[in-house]
Amino acid sequence: QVRLVESGGGLVQPGGSLRLSCAASGSIFSINAMNWYRQSPGKEREFVASIWWSLGNTYYADSVKGRFTIFRDKAKNTVYLQMNSLKPEDTAVYYCNLATNWGQGTQVTVSS
Fold first, then answer.
1. For position 11, what pLDDT does the model report?
2. Contact partners, residue 2, CB within 8 Å, separation at least 6
């Protein structure tokens, strides 16, 4: 059983920054990639960013490219999402994903 625990969400003004973290624990035999998704009210869950664990290759949704950065600490089995230049449309619950496992989500609200 794999456990994913997110933290770092909150309320921030437009143009501000937040850093999310997701720590993985439990029956982790190997990690290929870890991902961030988000879901806004009334919308489907959407891909935000992904990182390949071994080589560190990163991929981003067009909507966040240039503003968000995903990175990982392999020793801690933790993935981070640095979010800069936040916009109101970034408001959502952000979820960490590892294979078929999901975290509980952390709320990010961008509002003045």
1. 98
2. 24, 25, 26, 27, 28, 98, 99, 101
